[in-house]
């Protein structure tokens, strides 16, 4: 009997048709997400039944979903982070869980730098003004000599550091474990989180979502930042207290922010959407052709390795 692979990630294969051919040649039955969007928990409860492997995105793989997984042997999460998967229940059921590290660092780091540049030169404000026939010049700031504070120095944080150094920025970082091995190679300096927030001109977030990082940047932490500083989040939305951030932006207590991720996605009817000093993008950090091709290929290979050893 052919093993069955569920592809619940709505993005899988969209930018990498070759990987669908790879699965078609393999001796597996493929079940596709029929919704064209991220499935809900209730929909995943139905989809997960009778499948041997699953390639997933951000959809919830909760205890309730896993309880209905009667044949599941492997889950592969496209991209980084496993916060949407109940890992304890997966272990109890003997389900192997993987993600695809090494596939998205360039894409997320490039978006992060793009958002930093857009904030520094007020590009979205100028674009909006000119499209409304307003020839309005606003002063920007140079990145050279500014302090970039990285919260997290994993693969993506490292990739951002490398790019920031090319812009002649001074790079500091905070992580729970100090990375002596990277400090000299990347030319970065360790700081405690409070000090980093106080001294940085730009703060970027590169941490996984966990109990420890949920709400990591709240009212207390925002109050430590300079009034002229900017906050950029391409990690996970729940790392920031969005209500506190709105108040600080609306009151001008920090200069601006750029967010690619949100506590609830898709983002709708948020007060953040009404502010001119925040740039919002719809979770596209990993959404490039190159990253998609690498993620999809690695996900397919991992599923097949478990199901066809």
TrEMBL record:
> GO molecular-function annotation terms?
NAD binding; oxidoreductase activity, acting on the CH-OH group of donors, NAD or NADP as acceptor
Q: Does the keyword Transmembrane apply?
A: no
Keyword vocabulary terms for this entry: NAD, Oxidoreductase
Lineage top rank: taxon:
Bacteria
Q: Where is the signal peptide?
A: none
Tell me where in this chain the D-isomer specific 2-hydroxyacid dehydrogenase NAD-binding domain is found. Answer: 113-285
Under the heading PANTHER family, the entry gives: D-ISOMER SPECIFIC 2-HYDROXYACID DEHYDROGENASE FAMILY PROTEIN (AFU_ORTHOLOGUE AFUA_6G10090)
Hey, which family's this protein in? Belongs to the D-isomer specific 2-hydroxyacid dehydrogenase family.
Keyword Disulfide bond found: no
Instruction: From the Swiss-Prot or TrEMBL record, give the protein name.
Output: D-3-phosphoglycerate dehydrogenase
Give residue ranges for domain D-isomer specific 2-hydroxyacid dehydrogenase catalytic.
18-308
């Amino acid at each position: 009997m052919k093993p069955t692979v569920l592809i619940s990630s709505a993005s899988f294969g969209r930018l990498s048709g070759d990987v669908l051919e790879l699965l078609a040649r393999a001796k597996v039955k493929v079940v596709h997400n029929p919704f064209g969007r991220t499935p809900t928990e209730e929909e995943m409860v139905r989809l997960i039944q009778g499948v041997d492997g699953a390639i997933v995105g951000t959809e919830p793989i909760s205890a309730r979903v896993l309880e209905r997984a009667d044949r599941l042997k492997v889950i592969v999460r496209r991209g980084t982070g496993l916060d949407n998967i109940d890992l304890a229940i997966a272990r109890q059921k003997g389900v192997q869980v993987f993600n695809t590290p090494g596939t998205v660092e360039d894409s997320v780091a490039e978006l992060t730098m793009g958002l930093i540049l857009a904030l520094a030169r007020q590009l979205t404000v100028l674009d909006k003004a000119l499209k409304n026939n307003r020839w309005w010049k606003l002063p920007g700031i140079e990145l050279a000599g500014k302090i970039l504070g990285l919260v997290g120095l994993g693969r993506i944080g490292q990739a951002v550091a490398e790019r920031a150094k090319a812009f002649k920025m001074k790079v500091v970082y905070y992580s729970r474990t100090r990375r002596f091995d990277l400090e000299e190679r990347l030319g970065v300096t360790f700081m405690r989180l409070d000090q980093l927030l106080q001294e940085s001109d730009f703060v970027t977030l590169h941490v996984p979502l966990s109990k420890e990082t949920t709400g990591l940047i709240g009212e207390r932490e925002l109050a430590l930042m300079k009034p002229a500083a900017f906050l950029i989040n391409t990690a996970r939305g729940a790392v920031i207290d969005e209500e506190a951030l709105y108040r600080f932006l609306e009151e001008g207590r920090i200069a601006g922010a750029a967010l690619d991720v949100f506590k609830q996605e898709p983002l709708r009817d948020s007060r953040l959407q009404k502010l001119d000093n925040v740039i919002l993008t719809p979770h596209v950090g990993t959404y490039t052709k190159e990253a998609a091709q690498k993620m999809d290929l690695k996900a397919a290979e991992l599923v097949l390795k478990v199901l066809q050893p």
